[in-house]
Amino acid sequence: MRQVDHWIAGRSVPSSSGRRGPVYDPATGEVQAEVGLASAAEVDMAVQAALEAFSPWRATSLSARAEVLFAFRQLLRDHVDELADLITAEHGKVHSDAVGEVSRGLENVEFACGLPQLLKGEFSQQASTGVDVHSARQPLGVVAGITPFNFPAMVPLWMLANAIACGNTFVLKPSEKDPSPSLLLADLLQRAGLPDGVMNVLQGDQEAVVALLDHPEVAAVSFVGSTPVARSIYQHGTERGKRVQALGGAKNHMIVLPDADLDLAADAVVGAAYGSAGERCMAVSVLVAVGPVADPLVEAVAARVAKLRLGPGTDPDTDVGPLVTGQHRDKVASYVEGASAEGASVVVDGRTTTPVGQGLEQGFFLGPTIVDRVRPGMAVYDDEIFGPVLSVVRVDTYDEAVALVNDNPYGNGTAIFTRDGGAARAFEVDVQCGMVGVNVAIPVPVSYYSFGGWKDSLFGDAHMYGPAGIDFYTRAKVVTSRWPDPATSSVDLGFPRTR
Question: Catalytic annotation on 166?
């Protein structure tokens, strides 16, 4: 059985905790590897390695840091397919989707390559007579990232690229469900010239998370995952004086107005709802059909769903792969089962869809599903399902559609499809959500903006990556200086004035 280990101080370190977890092949249901689950002692080992590496890395010039990141960028480009294959093998998403994940993560490395510009401070000469003022951004120290199973490469790259660029050292705790991509990232960083200890990977579960949050040398924690866990991590970390950014769950609504391009909207919602088997925090899980567009829109979506091929992510003809675990698949399926009892209509039932391929009988498959005439208060609407289940809510007006989004406790992403520029502009202003798309179903910001939701989709004030990432991984310092002639010095007890 293949063993997945830690990466500490520049080398692979087998777990000594005695605890291991299974890593499944989601397409077959078979255990393909075992991952070591870190103890508190192993967490301390990784943090101490990062702490030892911090001072020399912080003292490394900006140009030398940028050189490492440029080399890492090229190595990522050279190994896109290898990294995507690992993602497909352990998460289950199709290869093209995995390549897209790596590509969006790579954008964040490219942004961080501009660190000499990003870390520039400000300077004011003669702020007062003979007094100059300048500002600087300085690293925090050892920082940690706790990342989810659904993007085992992209989300770590959201965090580590900026953290390392800013002069911090990094401890990554990836999901134990698909841990191998994190080790390849660490290996590529070492090949790029990153000093040992600057990047460390701790495999583990809740025990490792708690130990990181409790460790006095961890200055900041970044997290992406479900809302209950995000809330807990934010509270736990901030109580211990840490800087915390914790991105939670979502229930993303896509509104389609009667004047929208029907084919464009149907194509977009199918891609956004069922790509990566719906296991995306930016997936469209609620389609809001306004007025007379509802019937033709549902028909158009159902016609497209009928053509999707369910199968293993390794098959280039597969459109939708398996879910990450059998337990998660069963939980998602339970929402489909309960929808009819709550009064909704199951238009397409993915539980009856058979994957195409050999040896897939025990795989974690659930086909794309459409549940129509859903209303708030139903579990299929209220809960974050995180699977290939699309709920359709019918409303009469634009105002009702916006009220649905604004009344929802989540505020991660949303989209509107329309040809009406006035309605689109009003939507940008009216909607209470962190990321908004206009005829764009998955409005994930490019790397030089920042990613983050509102309401129960974000705990803390800091959004992730981009300019907000630079702010999160540094603290500001302002220096006021004077170089007077000692002969003119005198005692002055008055409060300093800028004159």
Answer: no
